[in-house]
Amino acid sequence: MAWLQLTLESDSEGARQASELLELFGAISVSLSAVNKQLLIEQHPDQQQELWDQTQVTALLHKDTDLDVLLASLRKRLGPAPLGNQKIALLPDKDWVREYQLSQGPRLFGNRLCVCPGWCIPPDNIDYVLLLDPGLAFGSGSHVTTGLCLDWLVATNIEGKLVIDYGCGSGILAIAAALLGARHAWALDIDPQALQAATANADRNRVSDKLTIDLPDKNNLPVVDILLANILLQPLQELAARFAALVLPDGNIVLSGILASQAEECLATYATWFNMAAPVFQREWALLTGRRNCSPI
């Protein structure tokens, strides 16, 4: 069976309204993405998540969908909101699940660690295999920021170390640390869905006994050898003093989720408590690392 793909652009409110209406019209899927690669800024968890100023809406529809009625309904629903760059394409029938799975193969880090979806066979002669399927919680190893952190972990001797993964998402960094020999890792996130995903992934990789998965606002967190945080610049800056209090003298801080253009600003924030190394850049992203000094908090 063939499918119709409808794409259009609108402002944030128009995109939200359009996606709701498309679902009412029986869309198989609706995805939202930025126009012009605008970065989506993280909101406080109590606030409604904002979309990009200019958002592209892509919907997969049944072939027999009445597009004239749908587009008229969209214009009526959105009112004065802009609705531009409309495109309609006829897509041939495919096994879309299979297509997606083929695009998500095993990923190797330092020839020591393989992050492998369940539908793939990991390569031979790899020391550690982390089984993880892409899902709703961030962290599959495919994003540059996650990959930079995994590269650091496999290049570092973390045998017997205590680790915090702050903003753990799927739990990938905490699980990788456990597989690579960490004594214990704390996977922390404000999103209950992320905590559920991390718990399931820890069970699947048989490291549940080496992980504590919880909300980050606990007062009984340990002081650790390594703290990893793959989040965004603003929360990294706001949490700098707290992170410093959680890292042992000469312990490691590993920060990602930072644009290359933001690296110097983040380095300046952390220089109070850490001896920071030169950033590592990959495409538009940066990885920052440093060692805890003995300055007062």
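That was protein one. Protein two is written in the same sequence-then-structure order:
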Amino acid sequence: MTNLKRSFFGVAIYLALILVLGQFDYADRPIINFASYFYLAVMVAVPLTLFFPSVSRVSVYVPLLIWAGVYIILLQIINRDYTANKGELPVIVLEFMLLEVGVWFAHQLAMQISHAESIMDALALSAFPNRARDIDSENQRIKIELTRSRRYHRPLSVVVIQSESEDEKTTREMLKSVQHDLLTRFTSARMGQIIDDRVRQTDLVLRDHKGRFIVLCPETDFLSASLLAQRISQAIKERTGLGVLWGAAAFPDEALTFDDLLQKARERLVSSAPVSNETVSVVESHQLP
């Protein structure tokens, strides 16, 4: 957490420095007259670098080079005469350096935030271990299962599961941001553990970027997948009190690619319904090895 605090402090000092330098006057004239597009570049570069998760996964040199290129393009196409003194090479160099420093600080802060989130995820998983994998890391397994279903003309279904938005809204109103973030991660890990208990070893449990669970079910038609989703949603409701939204789609009747199956299942996200005795019996047979 010490590095995270330092990164926050660095970004705050950086923004304050730009504000002070831009507003500091001598004899009613600005000492350093920054161009207006420099302020615009800083206002866009820092938030984009900070709030896009993919940025923290690449080398810091990537956003530095990108925004260096953006600044050079702006310098060439925009006339500085309207907002800054003409031909001030030292000011141009200072603007360039400040922009690069801002991008560097934002990247460091994004990395520290990502690291803190990873620690919270690890704590949640240690409390409620489950085998849900990030959907991007399982592309090869997904392709293998879909290819096998195509080759041997076997059914395959995709189930998408998420908590109901009403519950999330209530939680947000009750808790502060950090508390909510921790609760969300522990709740998600608990949901993953419950899903683990209800699926077969051959089923693939995934998580997407929005925290939704995706269950890839080989040798499973649409009816069995829907019954499985109902059984899972009922178990989550009983053990956590959370309402659940779920949707399912089946290969090859409704789509021929995984992305299309996933999209169809997401479009069908509906509230869970009570599970009948017939549902329980069918789902139990689905869980047999």
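The chain has two domains: 2-124, 131-287. Keep this in mind for the problem set.
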